[in-house]
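During the no-cost extension, the postdoctoral fellow (Dr. R.K.) reprocessed legacy sequence entries with the updated structure-token encoder. One reprocessed record is reproduced below for audit purposes.
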Amino acid sequence: MSAHYRCGLVVGKFCPLHRGHGLVIGHALAHCDEVLIISYTKPGFSGYDCALREAWLKARFPRTIRLVIDDARLATQCKELGIARLPSLPADDAPELEHREFVAWLCTDLLHRRPDAVFTSEDYGDGFARVLAEQFAQPVAHVCVDKARVTHPISGTQIRNNPHRHRTQLYPEVYASFVRRIGILGGESSGKTTLARALAANLDTTWVPEYGRELWECKDGQLVFDDMVAIGRMQVEKERMQLAHAQRFLICDTSPLTTLFYSHAMFGQADPELVRLAERGYDTIILCSPDIEFIQDGTRRDSDFRQRQHQWYLEYLNARGIAHLAMSGPPEKRLAAAMAYIADSALKAPLGHIAGEVVCKELGMNCRCRPEGA
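Re-encoded structure tokens follow.
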């Protein structure tokens, strides 16, 4: 393909964004002065909201002009631009002409551009280009990229059914959205690290150690107030870095909530940023009870402090209605209970909605719950 265009257009649901989409967008970027990406779907797919799809596109294709909308976003943008006409998004199964005319309106009225090329990997692109040419009163070329899906033989439906099976077709920042983060909390010497290691081994994934302990050892226990927010930031950053190596789950040995507790316990206050970091959500929270022998390793206080810490976590979680699994008993009992809880909660995954039977089979577990209405 040697032609060069002033403005290219790529339209898609991107639920999720995958490498097949990327191939088309990459071709557009290579052969256009600027590229518009428009994404919408109605009624859409649970777990694939506009903000997430927009974040994926921005991270992977920052040089594009992106419009990711639903009816609410469209209404807001029209109001800001003073546009009186307010069309609704066409349903996914609406006639092709309705979609084509809607996209043409988005280009002219919202984006103030008239693309001279549309990039797809489908036959529908020819008719799409003809309608755009009529609406724009100018020639619009259709550039079809890898129609046979030779380079990336994948579809959004396949990935939604099981994103982990098709991980190689996803960009790292996209796959990270499918990884369920499991936060393990508990007082000192309550078995958090033992459980984290065991879960990572059993789930064939990676885990994130407690950074606060690492820094404490590096500074010979002489932490200052400013270290608290630095620990919280680094704990989150280490989670982000490990997502690239995780398989389905990421096991997190503590969270910034732990640092928030120590900030209050050691300094009687907490940086507002640390408070915000402590509100970071996890797909599953496991709270280890202080019912095992307290082992003093030279970095810990005592069993009374451990009990106070455990009670603080309980009060924090309960006050905010944060669901969690209270873990007690010996290590083998804790591991079995955690594995069962994780297998069951996988049915509630915010993305992908993989069949529960598939998840549980891969974990070697028996499902004890089903989706509502099943």
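The first strand starts at residue 5 and ends at 12. The radius of gyration is 25 Å. The remaining legacy entries will be reprocessed before the final report is submitted.
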